[in-house]
Design the sequence.
């Protein structure tokens, strides 16, 4: 149960950890969009290089980041496989074919690129959650979304809901652990190989978990009420987010990378070396 | 009989969150003991007892726990046999209740052991009676509509119905009022008639002093020693070195003694103190 490493904060002192969460979020969005513009192997390699640099800068063990790939391994294998066997290319002869399945050289390239893109899409968000605490992320998101208050969107409340939810995940895991242990001590068969027995064994865990979640929610609501919590109006912050010079530098840097990728993709000026790299 | 040999345990090994909870623990709990385990929060008490029925697996090269000839450091353990033998009552056991009736909830444990419906029900009814609840009134009610004290009794009954030979209790009286505490402790004494070995974690020194015959003091994952109540609470140096507080009755006796009342400073229970005070002020037994 404790193996929920996806999105778990990894405490360390690094420039990536210290960066303003708002900037990290903006850079992440920029990065995700840019990944979709990658088209050639060179541009994928170019992006991967900067992802690796970011991971090294964050001082998170690289294996810890790569572990997040475990979660998408099935999707990864499936999509690349499907891409490979169903890709159709009328300009070249297939390398192999069985019935409706054809394998083209371009199909293999496309499949590799697809898999590569998926990995890039998962790695950076993992770096973000490994290097920022949930609170930082919520504060960053609230601050970024605050212009939407004009449209009467309850931004503060949404951020609060998110931060409570995130905050309670470890508590829920702990609670689940406790209840699982209590029921195991009463002979519950979680160790059983039979999937039906396993599902049935979850009932004595889920019900107490629901009961305790409701109890917790009630208590939290009472605690907030008794501290006169009234929502966003007139509320100040103890820790104000402050953008540093280095945050702007990082953002500019990633903008430059985006421009590079766009150039590699569209080759507006018709440079010959880009055409050479366009595989 | 539980034997703990050179047991160590590390939480989240090989991560930045790694903490060692137990260091080289050696203990021997014999049949018939009322064994107390005390120590401040984070001393490793709960981690230690969770080894007793293999809820926590013994890590590689980290010692051994042997429960009545079952070696828990072995690769394959007969969990059913072990869990029938060692009953475990966690902190706030009422949080584990789940079934729609009290009876079904108590039958959950025995049925997991492979006991047939009729006998499981009989065991459940006996257990309800043993914990001092009215079977006819409570058996078909939902456990969620009971009071806190009743819920705890039902949870206890759920473990007792498995007929354990060793009962492990993690702060059984936490969060109860003084009357509820006393009732639960009396109940545990009643259970002890059938289940000879009881291991109890507690922060309440009065309970420990009154009921336990052996006390293990844990501090930061190490056993400071195993003592009888008189040894431990009678020696200021031991209390000092183990970081243990006196039971309230003993503290009261010490204070009275300091004020010149002739009472023995080593009393451990309310009754003893009562007799001492009676002696000191010269009241004859009526």
Sequence:
């Amino acid at each position: 149960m404790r193996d929920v490493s996806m999105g778990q904060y990894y405490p360390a002192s690094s420039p990536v950890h210290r960066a303003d969460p708002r900037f990290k979020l903006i850079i992440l969005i920029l990065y995700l969009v840019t990944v979709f513009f990658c088209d050639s192997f060179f541009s994928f390699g170019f992006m991967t290089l900067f992802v690796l640099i970011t991971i090294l800068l964050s001082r998170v063990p690289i294996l810890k980041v790569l572990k997040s790939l475990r979660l998408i391994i099935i999707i990864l294998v499936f999509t690349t496989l499907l891409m490979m066997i169903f890709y159709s290319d009328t300009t070249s002869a297939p390398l192999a074919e069985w019935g409706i399945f054809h394998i083209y050289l371009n199909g293999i390239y496309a499949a590799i690129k697809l898999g590569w893109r998926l990995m890039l899409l998962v790695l950076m968000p993992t770096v973000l959650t490994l290097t920022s605490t949930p609170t930082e992320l919520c504060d960053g998101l609230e601050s970024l979304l605050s212009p939407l208050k004009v449209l009467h969107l309850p931004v503060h409340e949404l951020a609060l809901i998110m931060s409570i939810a995130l905050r309670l995940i470890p508590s829920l895991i702990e609670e689940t652990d406790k209840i699982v242990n209590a029921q195991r001590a009463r002979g519950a068969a979680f160790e059983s190989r039979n999937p039906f027995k396993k599902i049935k064994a979850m009932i004595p865990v889920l019900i107490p978990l629901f009961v305790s979640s409701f109890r917790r929610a009630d208590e939290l609501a009472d605690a907030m009420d008794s501290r006169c919590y009234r929502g966003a109006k007139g509320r100040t912050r103890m820790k104000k987010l402050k953008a540093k010079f280095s945050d702007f530098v990082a953002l500019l840097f990633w903008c430059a990378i985006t421009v590079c990728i766009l150039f590699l993709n569209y080759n507006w000026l018709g440079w010959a070396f880009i055409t050479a790299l366009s595989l | 009989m539980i034997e703990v040999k050179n047991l160590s345990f590390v939480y989240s090994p090989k991560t930045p969150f790694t903490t060692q909870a137990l260091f080289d623990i050696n203990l021997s709990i014999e049949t018939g003991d009322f064994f107390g385990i005390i120590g401040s929060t984070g001393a490793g008490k709960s981690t230690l007892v969770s080894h007793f029925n293999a809820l926590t697996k013994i890590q590689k090269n980290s010692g051994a726990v042997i429960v009545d000839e079952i070696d828990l450091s072995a690769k394959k353990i007969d969990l059913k046999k072990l869990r029938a033998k060692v009953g475990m009552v966690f902190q706030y056991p009422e949080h584990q209740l789940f079934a729609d009736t009290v009876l079904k909830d108590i039958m959950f444990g025995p049925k997991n052991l492979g006991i047939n419906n009729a006998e499981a029900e009989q065991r459940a009814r006996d257990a309800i009676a043993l914990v001092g609840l009215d079977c006819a009134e409570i058996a078909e009610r939902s456990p969620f509509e009971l009071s806190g004290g009743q819920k705890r009794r039902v949870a206890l009954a759920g473990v007792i119905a498995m007929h354990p030979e060793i009962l492990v209790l993690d702060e059984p009286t936490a969060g109860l009022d003084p009357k509820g505490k006393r009732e639960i402790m009396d109940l545990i004494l009643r259970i002890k008639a059938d289940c000879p070995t009881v291991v109890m974690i507690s922060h309440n020194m009065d309970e420990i002093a009154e009921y336990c015959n052996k006390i293990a003091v844990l501090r930061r994952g190490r056993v400071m020693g195993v003592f009888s109540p008189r040894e431990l609470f009678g020696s200021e140096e031991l209390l000092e070195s183990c970081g243990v507080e006196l039971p309230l009755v003993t503290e009261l006796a010490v204070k009275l003694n300091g004020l010149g009342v002739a009472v023995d400073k080593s009393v451990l229970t309310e009754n003893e103190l009562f007799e001492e005070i009676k002696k000191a002020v010269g009241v004859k037994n009526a």
Residues 1-6 of chain A have pLDDT under 50 and may be disordered.
